């Protein structure tokens, strides 16, 4: 999947920029109002070249991994049910394949496009594991952590729900409401996951904690231990954001392909309610916004608009251009991006 340039760089010489231009990591390259000189043009070209090199989303690799993970996890489920085999030996190979994909993703420029891709895929536990792993790694990148940490975050995400393999599929996919017993069983998956992974000395300590604590919430309303913010490691808080984000997209199968901003807004509410960490969520949303500058979005009134500016502190309520009219979404309670 390749993305075409949103503007021709050469045409910008001597132009006064009508919008900020950001680099690969979302940093400001040239600000709005700048008159573009030869030197600045060269700077933009260098960044664009770099970006083009990294532009391709490795779709084939993603699908191959999804296939491998599916086979691997089905095999694991059988092993768990029969009580045989070394579980962690079995997952080592899959972790390696996953890390390869994560490495690619950590250097992909179009995060927003990538996130849309994840959203549009299926929402099986296999896909959820890959998505949360990749998202956790990418959030780490956005927050400025080094690749080494982002790979650990990736593994945390990849293995966070492994305990669900101890829960019968008939319960996991039950279309009706779960009984109290069934619900209590499902809520034990963090403990099951921890138990499954802890015997392997190669597994990083934070991967274990991720499996055990990813449903804890900062305000103490999570499970299994009702921990509070200061008791939950920051990297697990990142994992919880990635997990919640992916779970929210899964709930919206009816609206496949809609803007990641819609989900971002839902996530922002979680931060305001004190369940998830705003320090993690806000930069994540702002990064998505920057990636979406100049992109076409659909509004709830059925009209298409183009994001032309986003306001600090109001990342999900940008300025958009609709039919040659600028609309400030901050002042329009009736309008939002879907
Ligand atoms: Fe979970
Ligand atoms: Fe999950």
From TrEMBL:
SUPFAM superfamilies: HD-domain/PDEase-like (SSF109604). It comes from the Bacteria. Residues 103-300 form the HD-GYP domain. InterPro entries: HD/PDEase_dom, HD_GYP_dom. PROSITE patterns: HD_GYP (PS51832). This is HD family phosphohydrolase.
């Amino acid at each position: 999947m390749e993305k075409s340039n949103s503007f021709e760089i050469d045409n910008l010489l001597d132009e006064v920029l009508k919008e900020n231009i950001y680099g690969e990591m979302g940093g400001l390259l040239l600000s709005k109002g700048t008159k573009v000189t030869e030197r600045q043009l060269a700077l933009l070209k260098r960044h664009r070249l770099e970006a083009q090199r990294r532009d391709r989303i490795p779709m084939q690799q993603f699908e191959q991994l999804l296939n491998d993970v599916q086979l691997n996890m089905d095999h694991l489920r059988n092993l768990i049910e029969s009580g045989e085999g070394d579980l962690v030996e079995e997952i080592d190979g899959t972790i390696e394949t996953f890390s390869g994909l994560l490495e690619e993703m950590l250097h992909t420029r179009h995060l927003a496009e990538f996130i849309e891709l994840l959203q549009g895929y299926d929402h099986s536990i296999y896909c959820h594991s890959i998505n949360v792993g990749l998202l956790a790694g990418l959030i780490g990148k956005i927050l400025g952590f080094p690749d080494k940490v982002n790979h650990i975050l990736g593994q945390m995400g990849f293995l966070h729900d492994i305990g669900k393999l101890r829960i019968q599929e008939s319960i996991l996919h039950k279309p009706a409401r779960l009984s109290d017993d069934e619900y209590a069983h499902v809520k034990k998956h963090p403990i099951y996951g921890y138990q499954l992974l802890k015997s392997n000395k190669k597994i990083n300590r934070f991967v274990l904690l991720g499996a055990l604590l990813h449903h804890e919430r900062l305000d103490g309303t999570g499970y299994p231990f009702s921990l509070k913010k200061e008791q939950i490691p920051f990297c697990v808080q990142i994992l919880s954001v990635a997990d919640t984000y992916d779970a929210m997209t899964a709930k919206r199968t009816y609206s496949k392909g809609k803007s990641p901003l819609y989900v971002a807004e839902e996530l922002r509410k979680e931060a305001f309610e004190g369940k998830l960490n705003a320090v993690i969520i806000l930069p994540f949303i702002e990064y998505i916004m920057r990636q979406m500058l100049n992109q076409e979005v659909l509004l709830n009134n059925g009209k298409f608009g183009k994001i032309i500016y986003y306001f600090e502190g109001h990342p999900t309520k940008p300025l958009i251009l609709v039919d040659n009219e600028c609309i400030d979404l901050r002042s329009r309670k009736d309008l939002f991006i879907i």
